[in-house]
UniProtKB/TrEMBL annotation:
Sequence intervals crossing the membrane: 55-76, 88-111, 140-160, 200-220, 226-248, 283-303
Assigned keywords, A-Z: Membrane, Transmembrane, Transmembrane helix, Transport
Organism name: Tothia fuscella
Subcellular location: Membrane
Domain of life: Eukaryota
Family statement: Belongs to the MIP/aquaporin (TC 1.A.8) family.
Protein's recorded name: Aquaglyceroporin like protein
GO molecular function per UniProt: glycerol channel activity; water channel activity
One term under GO cellular component: plasma membrane
Membrane topology: Multi-pass membrane protein
Subcellular location, principal: membrane
Length: 364
């Protein structure tokens, strides 16, 4: 435990950039009295690569997010085809909640280790805007896709008798199981037969993903007074659910890792048509999330973010320190009204010199 009283990760002195703010104080709370840590365990964890922990956390988090979501879709699709009372068993409302709660549980469970990106577009945005190490980006993205791939395999294992029967019925009736409402659509999205214009599909995916991206970035803004670390997982989850309720029947993907990992599983079990269906719609489902999220985060950074408020609350400092901030306030004519800011910064200067921020940016 360092002298300043803040809990630090072994050897790093900080938590990874991501959804980890709550841990700085929450991790000191003991629900159950812990047993003493053995020297053997400490030595094992010391030798274990940090990047391995982070990659496994990203893969596990994506699994936690995708598995309940596609399970709800499986229940909805299988029961619909079996002519069962669908509202009793599943509907799009339940699918939305499954994804929302899956995301919340993924953040709560795995974000303390990796930062809780769970989306290649969020990883890239954090690298662009928040200084996340570029050397870690490929590891994170591959781990996220792997987690989705495993979720698809496990779901097929759980539902295989029902999915196999549905696949056979689809082939007998339509000649394929790859279409919206078919067995393959349990794993990944496909457009409706009437959605022949890819421009509309692109626009829909772009703005759905932008909506989610802006909500995520606002949750990660430490100057946002309406979101606490405890509420961030559920707020981000509800942003996804809101878009599912509004557009799932009209085909959306929202996440490269979520779509690509399960689409690979669909291609293994249902054929390459999983990637080529409907004039290769899959490129929209897989790739549009990245430019849309970068656009959304850039929109927030350039047009909404208030960095002076972020500094004044002790969540960041000027790149030239307190002197640089004073020069800025003087040059912009806000020195008189910002005296409280500079006084507060002087009081926090000691903690800055120790490299400890009161609150860091968070992500999912």
């Amino acid at each position: 435990m360092p002298e300043n009283g803040h809990l630090s990760r072994l050897e790093t002195g900080e938590l990874e950039l991501g959804v980890t703010d709550a841990l700085q104080k929450h991790a000191t709370r003991h629900v159950v009295p812990p047993k003493p840590v053995s020297q053997r365990k400490l030595e094992f964890e010391h030798k274990r690569p940090r990047i391995l922990r982070e990659c496994m956390a990203e893969a596990t988090g994506v699994f936690f997010y995708v598995f309940p979501g596609i399970a709800a879709i499986a229940q909805f699709t299988v029961n619909a085809e079996a002519a069962l009372p669908v509202p009793f068993y599943s509907n799009l409302l339940q699918v939305g909640f499954a994804f929302a709660l899956g995301i919340a549980l993924a953040i709560i469970t795995c974000a303390p280790v990796s930062g809780g990106h769970f989306n290649p577009a969020i990883t890239l945005s954090l690298a662009i805007w928040q200084g996340f190490p570029w050397k870690k980006v490929p590891h994170y993205i591959l781990s996220q896709i792997f987690g989705s791939f495993i979720a698809g395999l496990v779901l097929l294992g759980c539902y295989w008798p029902e999915i196999r029967a549905l696949r056979d019925a689809n082939i007998a009736m339509h000649g394929t199981a790859v279409f919206n409402g078919g067995a393959a659509s349990i794993l990944c999205s496909f457009p409706n037969p009437t959605q022949t214009n890819q421009g509309y599909l692109f626009m829909q995916e772009f703005f759905v993903d932008s909506f989610i991206g802006i909500v995520i970035w606002s949750c990660l803004d430490p100057a946002n007074p309406f979101v606490t670390p405890v509420s961030v997982p559920f707020t981000i989850g509800l942003a996804y659910a809101t878009m599912i309720w509004g557009f799932a029947a009209n085909t959306i993907s929202t996440n490269l890792a979520r779509d690509l990992g399960t689409r690979i599983v669909a291609a293994i079990f249902f054929g390459r048509e999983a990637f080529t269906y409907h004039n290769s719609y899959s490129w929209i489902a897989i790739l549009v999330n990245i430019p849309a999220t970068i656009f959304a985060t850039g929109y927030y950074e350039f047009l909404i973010r208030d960095s002076l408020q972020k500094i004044s609350q002790g969540h960041a400092q000027h790149e030239d320190g307190e002197d640089g901030l004073v020069r800025h306030l003087t040059r912009t004519g806000t020195m008189d009204m910002e005296q409280g800011y500079t006084s507060a910064l002087r009081g926090n200067q000691g903690s800055y010199e120790n490299g400890v921020e009161k609150k860091r940016s968070v992500a999912t």
